[in-house]
Design goal:
- This protein is mainly alpha-helical and 100 residues long.
- The protein has a domain of 64 residues.
- The chain is 78% helix and 0% strand.
- The chain has 6 helices and no strands.
- Helix 2 crosses helix 3.
- The longest helix is centred in the first third of the chain and has 25 residues.
- This is DUF3791 domain-containing protein.
C-alpha cells in the first residue's frame, strides 16, 4: 500500500505538470492573431451563407460561436477553415440558430 501511494502521488504530480504545460502553451497566442482569425472566419461565414459581414457577426455572436472560437482558438486555428465554418454552423444550430 505504501508503494502504491507513492506511485499515485508521482502520477498526480506528473499529470499536474503536463496540465500546466498544456495550459501555458495555449495561452501564448497573441490577441492580434486571434482577432485576425475571428474576423476572417466571420467574413468567410458571411460569404458562404450570403450574409453581410455585420449580419454574420450578429448571428455568430448571438449563438455564442465567437466566444467558442475565442476559447478554443488553440485548436481551431490548426484545422481547415472550411471545417471550422462547418463546425460553428452546427454549433449555432445546437443553440437555436437556423442557418444550415
Amino acid at each position: 500500500m505504501g508503494a502504491e501511494g507513492v506511485i499515485n502521488h508521482r502520477n498526480n504530480d506528473y499529470l499536474c505538470d503536463v496540465s500546466l504545460l498544456i495550459k501555458n502553451t495555449f495561452m501564448d497566442f497573441s490577441v492580434k492573431d486571434k482577432i485576425e482569425y475571428i474576423v476572417a472566419l466571420i467574413s468567410e461565414f458571411a460569404k458562404l451563407h450570403s450574409l453581410a459581414p455585420s449580419q454574420a457577426y450578429r448571428y455568430l455572436d448571438r449563438y455564442k460561436a465567437i466566444d467558442f472560437i475565442d476559447k478554443h482558438y488553440g485548436i481551431a486555428h490548426t484545422q481547415r477553415f472550411e471545417d471550422v465554418i462547418s463546425d460553428i454552423t452546427a454549433y449555432c444550430q445546437r443553440f437555436g440558430g437556423a442557418i444550415k
